[in-house]
Amino acid sequence: MNEQAPDAAPNAEQIEYWNGPVGLRWLAYNDWLDERTAAYGRAAFAAAAPQPGEAVLDIGCGAGATSFELARAVGAGGSVTGVDISAPLLGRARERAAAHGLNVEFREADASRPSFAPHSFDLLFSRFGVMFFDDPAAAFAELRKTLRPGGRLAFACWQEPQLNDWYELPLAAIADLVERTPVDTRQPGPFAFSDPDHIREVLADAGFAGVELKPFATPFYLGRGATREAMADDAMEQVFRVGPIARLLESQSEQINAKAREAIRAALFKLAGDDGLEVGGAIWVVTARKE
């Protein structure tokens, strides 16, 4: 297996972020996160339509859940390469690949500056892994070079924050306690591709053709459990460990944190139902091709 360390210069902030405490927190809650985002990944997977024998690059593969699904689709005659900048998540991916006997190669590298040979892949795929490029047009232009003629791009990215209650609800609950910084949808982050016009502009500048965006919305299960209290507790784990609230409150006093927890839990408890604690989640499923 050809593994390489990420370049320390480009995307340095993102590399440090995903290899530090955040990467370890995501690793601890990886199964939880995979379950909650699986439906969005399936929507992108259906649009990508990987075929037996194809070579696929999984961008921002994390701990490998999507890479394994792609590997099953392309079969023994195909190949899947998963790339990510997070060493902790890739470590889990490699462990899982060995346990399941799947032929997937994982590389620790910055996908925005790919080192793959031209015309290496039939399909570029990503579930929430392309929104963190420091220069998205340049990144996609480089990734396009790795596609064979007629190759395809398919990815899932979040729509605007207002359509994603998993993000908005906790912030709204503490609006009177903490001043929030407006989301800059043109900077690296979960909502960097929430603007459909921006997506089209970036991909056109990168040389892609046939760009299509389809909205997809389905409930995001923040919490599960036998009781409403258990559901709220489960949701609180995610909100304070891997959600935006964790970063917003880390510099606040213990008193503010305590009040914030109380306010958020009350808001979450109201949403607990028979099937779980669900909130709104909406993505764009984006496809394009290389002519």
Could you explain how this protein is built, in words?
- It is a single chain.
- The protein is built from eleven helices and ten strands.
- The chain has 291 residues and is α/β, with parallel strands linked by helices.
- The protein has a domain at 12-160 and 184-217 and 282-289: Rossmann fold (3-Layer(aba) Sandwich).
- The chain has a seven-stranded mixed sheet, sandwiched between helices.
- Helix 4 (65-74) links the parallel strand 1 and strand 2.
- Helix 6 (136-145) crosses helix 8 and helix 7 (165-173) packs across helix 11.
- The longest helix is centred in the N-terminal third of the chain and has 19 residues, at 30-48.
- It is globular.
- This is Methyltransferase family protein.
- GO terms for molecular function: methyltransferase activity.
- Residues 56-151 form the Methyltransferase domain.
- Keywords: Methyltransferase, Transferase.
Short overview:
This protein is an alpha/beta fold and 291 residues long. The chain contains 11 helices and 10 strands. Strands 3-2-1-4-5-10-6 form a 7-stranded mixed sheet, sandwiched between helices. A 3-stranded antiparallel sheet has the order 7-9-8.
Q: What is the tally of helical segments?
A: 11
Beta fraction:
15-25%
Radius of gyration: 19 Å
Largest sheet: 7 strands, mixed
Structural category is alpha/beta
Based on CA inertia axes, which overall geometry fits?
globular
Mean pLDDT: 90
The residue fraction in helices comes out at: 40-55%
Strands of the largest sheet, in order across it? 3-2-1-4-5-10-6
Number of strands: 10
Task: Assign the CATH class of the domain at 12-160 and 184-217 and 282-289.
Answer: Alpha Beta
